[in-house]
Fold:
Amino acid sequence: MGRILLLEDDEMLSQTILGILRAEGHEVYRAINGREAYELTFSTHYDLYLFDVNIPIFNGFEVLRELRNAGDTTPAFFITALNDIDSIARGFKAGANDYIKKPFDLDEFLIRVRAVLKRKEKVVVYRDIVFESATKQVLINGLECDLSPVERMIFSLLIHQLGRTVSKDSFYEIMEKSSDAALRVHVNRLKQKLGISITNIRSVGYRLESS
Structure:
């Protein structure tokens, strides 16, 4: 399941989209203007952006363009009534992965959402790191990083819960010899090898920071 940010000021449409996505098991947040969307992206990592274009303060094109300029590669769909060629071109130039014209078929909409989230589950990009979920392969700038099997599993748990705390018990389940000391060693090695920031939440677990 994915974490999705919906930028839409139409109340009725928003409630429809929120309802069908949450029924699918997704965690969905809503912003009603461009400023709110910016603020939500600062504090939370998302798996998919769904942006209307004609919204208050900053339009959807502007919001996505700024996110892309900041290095945010989160997949993004524009959902808009603007269906002329110039608008579609602007949407893709701003960094969109798909463009859904209003009114749209809900079944087709869900198919597109499922497809992009399924692709994202297979490959996760974090800064200059690419993580292959199926093989647990970790690449830095295209080169495979030398990690032990346990380190790969620990990183898998952290990267798939980016910005959220993973409990110690979750880590212990994948460790042959589980202890606080052993877990701390594995985490420190990951930090050194990958150059990433992992926070120790005392007595709870560890969190890979989203920024």
In short: The first helix runs from residue 11 to 23. The longest strand covers residues 3-7. The chain has a mean pLDDT of 87. The radius of gyration is 19 Å.
